[in-house]
Write a structure and sequence with these properties.
Helices cover 21% and strands 32% of the residues. By secondary structure, it is α+β, with helices and mostly antiparallel strands. Strand 3 and strand 4 form a beta hairpin.
Length: 461
């Protein structure tokens, strides 16, 4: 393990994403192998030899055809009468069943009918399947905002470094409110590089917002808007979104996406949850690889939906829309960060400010990322490989050693140095935290130890 990273020169480079953080190409995620579809016209070279018929045979065939036609016509007429009668009887028989599904008296149950759980028809007598989501949209729209990011982008030219004004559109979800601010959850890539942020509410009232916190390692951010800056009519109409439990969602259940699609204003699309726990990796603006385990939906997701809401049929937020699969041959593959994972991170941003440089905490290690591919190759956990421990640091005092792997920090899984840095920027020096470490001396078995973070005492090279 001492030359753990020396054996991977060049092998761990990441493909650049030409489509940006918001969307990525089909080649960047394995969604199953291609298949060959058989066509009856594939074997076009085989031509049957045409047979000739005599007049007698033709006459016999004509008589046989006439006889068959008469028999078929008679049977068809009888069948039509029988089927019509049967359909009439079935239609009359259905009417009481339809009325019973609309009844609110649960004590009235027709014992002659088989319970729906004992059949495999794909239907249920208790649930009405509908595509009308107007009531859900009406209730949730006051909790959804448009986020406009105005920033400066630098680029290199023959004459040197130039700057250009840029504007991008995204979405956000109102997740909390106190006496001074309302707090809006969105994606980090929606607010990254912003000089100014404009928040437009559902009544088209626009107010300036401020980045309260951002975590590039999981593409989450929180924007705050001062209550005093919001007109009273707007303040009385906005709502805090109701959060659901994304862990209990199942593939095939209804899904609704609400967001600022294409920057044209808030729009609503619907579909289903088409997959769960899809690992998606993209590059952020700083070149870091961001890997999230996401919910997949076929509800239409378009540029500008980033930071918007993925809802269940109850109107509860179960995900924050993050990316989509962009390819000419692909449709209906958008992704959202599960709210059950995101909420603790969002809450930390709402409750805490980024600590000042003077009070910034310091663990005292030099670390390198262990990706899932490296984990399989070397049989070590995914996390941060400890390449060096600084003498006198909190890490050394707690017993963390070189070649250990940090897999958890302060209750959150650690998958990269970027993740670790994003967690620590909200924790001040002197705080004692729980750190999960896979010890090299114990065959990389995990144990949780307490580490008291210090101020920076040395700069690790």
């Amino acid at each position: 393990m001492s030359d753990f990273f020396n054996n991977n020169n060049g092998s761990e480079t990441n493909e650049q994403n030409d489509s940006g953080t918001y969307s990525y190409k089909k080649e960047q995620i394995n969604q199953g192998e291609s298949y060959y579809q058989w066509s009856p016209y594939d074997d076009g070279n085989r031509v049957k030899k045409k047979k000739t018929k005599t007049f007698g045979k033709k006459l016999g065939n004509a008589a046989a055809i006439a006889l068959v036609f008469g028999i078929v016509a008679g049977l068809a007429f009888q069948s039509i009468v029988a089927v019509t009668n049967r359909l009439w009887n079935l239609e009359n028989a259905k009417q009481p069943a339809i009325e019973s599904t609309q009844s609110t008296d649960s004590s009235k149950k027709d014992s002659s009918k088989v319970d729906s759980t004992n059949t495999a028809t794909g239907t249920t007598t208790a649930t009405k399947i509908t595509t009308d989501v107007s009531e859900i949209a009406k209730n949730v729209l006051p909790a959804i905002v448009q986020v406009t990011n105005a920033g400066i982008k630098e680029y290199q030219t023959f004459f040197g470094t130039m700057q250009q004004q840029t504007t991008s559109a995204g979405s956000g979800i109102i997740v909390a409110q106190d006496d001074e601010n309302i707090y809006i959850a969105t994606n980090n890539h929606v607010v990254s590089g912003a000089e100014t942020l404009t928040i437009t509410f559902n009544d088209e009232q626009a107010v300036e917002g401020t980045i309260k916190g951002a975590d590039s390692s999981c593409d989450l951010a929180v924007v705050s808007v001062a209550v005093k800056d919001i007109p009273s009519e707007t303040l009385s109409s906005i709502k805090v979104a109701t959060l659901g439990d994304s862990d209990t969602t199942v593939v095939g259940e209804a899904a609704i996406v609400i967001g600022n699609a294409l920057g044209y204003g808030t729009s609503v699309t619907n579909g289903i949850i088409s997959a769960k726990d899809r690992e998606v990796s993209v590059n952020d603006d700083d070149g870091n690889v961001v890997t999230n385990s996401l919910i997949q939906t076929n509800a239409a997701v378009n540029p500008g939906n980033s930071g918007g809401a993925l809802l269940n049929a109850k109107g509860e937020v179960i995900g924050i829309v993050s990316v989509k699969l962009a390819d000419a041959q692909v449709e209906g593959m958008g992704y959202a960060i599960p709210i059950s994972f995101a909420w603790s991170i969002i809450q930390q941003m709402v409750d805490n400010d980024v600590v000042s440089e003077l009070d910034a905490s310091y663990l005292g290690i030099a670390g390198k990322d262990i990706t899932s591919e490296m984990s399989e190759q070397y049989n070590v956990p995914v996390g941060v490989y400890v390449a060096q421990v600084v003498s006198g640091s909190g890490a050394e005092a707690a017993g963390i050693e070189a070649e250990d792997v940090i897999t958890g920090f302060n209750g959150r899984a650690v998958t990269s140095v970027n993740t670790l840095n994003n967690i620590m920027k909200y924790i001040s020096a002197g705080t004692t935290v729980d750190v999960t470490v896979a010890k090299k001396s114990n065959d990389y078995k995990e144990e949780t130890i307490k580490v008291t973070l210090t101020r920076r005492i040395d700069k690790v090279q």
